[in-house]
Design goal:
Helix content is 37%, strand content 13%. The strands form three sheets. Strands 7-8-12-11-10-9-13-14 form an eight-stranded mixed beta sheet. Strands 2-1-3-4 form a four-stranded parallel beta sheet, sandwiched between helices. The chain is α/β, with parallel strands linked by helices. Helix 4 packs parallel to helix 5 and helix 11 packs antiparallel against helix 12.
Length: 558
């Protein structure tokens, strides 16, 4: 075992002395050492309860004959970090999480790992570390939050974080009073867990089941449900079985597993950020995966669910309807059914025991919300390397749209213009210099998209950016435009009033400009200079790759 490097032999007496100081007994030295990677923090609602989850994991490890050692990673709450300088640190935190797990696991020679993530960048960051280390590992998330319940004149309605963001736009347009906003603010997030819609955190936790790295129920069992602690207990036990069988992450995650994840993602209408993270996960596993393959999978995968923000259901409804096993059961032959999982069962064996309990939350193939997937990659003369849109959350009238560009060189400029009422029906808002390098940090743009939705403009105004969107964004929100403006991408030469043509069914995104005119403008484009000169963001900017490859670090590529 790896842990023998810190506990076996006369020369390890000093190591054993230190281990005894943290409570390791003489009998424990003969047992596997299991790292329990917890992302607990008191500032993040999705993580505030993870001590309880970690205790259940450690109990499971002990029961199965291992010795658990808990350590922590950082975690950023994207909602709290939204629309200020803090959001520049959200995506970069993914690489810090992966690196910190690598450091701890290598320095202390754990034999296997149980990962406890919940929110957006923690899930992929931890999985990237698991693939890099390639020692037996299993994931158990903290679970989703309950939807809020708000009393209105029409009765009790459900709400979530995106409802609050959109309500700001409603207040600005006098559709809602500030008092009503305060009531909504008080009720929308009723307790612990990852925000209750099919936002990035819940998308990634659901996809961990499709990837095969988590037990059934990981993505949908509520944080406040006692089944969550039982799942954590089972994960703690199961990691010893993985260790005994020498089953490692790269034995489970291969090209077929990545395809399965994208197929389930398409059926769920997951967050656009999932594309960024799955590409990074594939990169860490050494699996070549082209963005064009995403559209190929989307073309053959129907959208079976419309969870917030695409519809009115929440993750608790998806769990009640049968969860991810029931979704995968509907997808049948589209999935690689023979893929093994950390449960010890194949995808087929898991879905064979699943049943759909609500045929509207999880639709059958013949009654699917659409016959193609919830995500699409657009290409064109302003996105030659691709851009991502959550088409399941786009109104039918915006699937094809042509309008004048309203150009802004930062999210803050665009937000100010929207709040000042300067955006009109038919406009195409362009926000650039917000990519991985240009931001730096590739900020999420939930504030401008939510403002547009709250002001009733989401069915007539599109938004295009080289930055990202929250999983809670809806409307014709097209992000991850690559190459980004800071790298001299064509988005940098779009001018106020240029006509932008969007055709989501045909996967195209173009400015109505000739190739010669784009080249002429690019030739006159000044070299981008970032105002960031020091700190982690400066180092991040130097090393980060484009969004199309997952915004991974270019150093140490496989």
């Amino acid at each position: 075992m790896r842990s023998e490097a810190i506990k076996k032999g006369i020369e390890r007496a000093p190591h054993r002395a230190l281990l005894r100081a943290v409570g390791v007994s003489s009998n424990d030295f003969a047992r596997p050492f299991i790292g329990v990677v917890n992302s607990f923090t008191e500032i993040v609602p999705g993580h505030v309860h993870l001590r309880e989850i970690a205790q259940a994991v450690k109990d499971g490890v002990r029961q199965a004959g291992g010795v658990p050692f808990e350590f922590n990673t950082i975690a950023v709450c994207d909602g709290i970090a939204m629309n200020h300088a803090g959001m520049r640190y959200s995506l970069p935190s993914r690489e810090l999480i992966a690196d910190s797990v690598e450091v701890m696991a290598q320095a202390h020679r754990f034999d296997a790992l149980v990962f406890i993530p919940n929110c957006d960048k923690v899930v992929p960051g931890m999985l990237m570390a698991a693939l890099r280390l390639n020692i037996p590992a299993i994931f158990v998330s903290g679970g989703p939050m309950l939807a809020g319940k708000v009393k209105t004149g029409d009765g009790i309605k459900t709400a979530d974080l995106s409802s609050v963001f959109e309500a700001v736009g409603q207040v600005l347009t006098k559709q809602m009073s500030e008092h009503e906003l305060e009531i909504l603010e008080d009720e929308a997030c009723p307790g612990c867990g990852s925000c209750s819609g099919m936002f990035t955190a819940n998308t990634m936790n659901c996809l961990m089941e499709a990837l095969g790295m988590a037990l059934p129920g990981n993505g949908t069992i509520l944080a406040v449900d006692q089944r969550r602690c039982k799942l954590a207990l089972e994960a703690g036990k199961r990691v010893l079985g993985l260790l005994a069988a020498d089953i490692k992450p790269r034995d489970i995650i291969d090209d077929k597993a990545i395809e399965n994840a994208f197929i389930v993602d398409m059926a769920l209408g997951g967050s656009t950020n999932s594309v960024l993270h799955l590409m990074a996960i594939a990169h860490e596993a050494g699996i070549p995966f082209s963005l064009k393959r995403v559209n190929e999978l989307s073309d053959k995968t129907p959208c079976l669910a419309r969870i917030r923000p695409a519809g009115d259901y929440h993750i608790e409804d998806l769990d009640r309807a049968g969860g991810i096993p029931a979704v995968m059961k509907q997808l049948d032959v589209r999935l690689h059914q023979g893929k093994n999982t950390v449960s010890g069962r194949t995808i087929f064996e898991i879905t064979a025991q699943a049943a759909i309990q609500d045929n509207d939350v999880i639709r059958a193939l013949e009654t699917a919300y659409s016959q193609n997937g919830g995500l699409a990659i657009l290409f064109g003369n302003i996105a030659p390397e691709g851009a991502v849109v959550k088409r399941s959350a786009v109104a039918a009238e915006m699937m094809r749209h042509s309008g004048p560009a309203r150009v802004f060189d930062s999210e803050d400029e665009a937000t100010g213009a929207i709040m000042a009422g300067k955006i009109r029906h038919g406009d195409v808002v362009v926000i650039r210099y917000e990519g991985p390098k240009g931001g730096p940090g590739m900020r999420e743009m939930l504030t401008p998209t939510a403002l547009l939705a709250g002001m009733g403009l989401d069915k007539s105004v599109a938004l295009i950016t080289d930055g990202r969107f929250s999983g809670a964004s809806r409307g014709a929100s097209i992000g991850h435009v690559s190459p980004e403006a800071a790298l001299g991408g064509p988005l940098a030469v779009v001018r106020e009033g240029d006509i932008i043509e969007i055709d989501i069914p045909c996967y195209s995104l173009n400015a109505k400009l000739s190739e010669a005119e784009i080249k002429e403008r690019l030739a006159k484009l000044p070299v981008f200079t970032s105002p960031v000169r020091s700190g982690y963001l400066a180092r991040y900017m130097e090393n980060v790759a484009p969004a199309g490859s997952g915004a991974v670090f270019t150093l140490g590529q496989i």
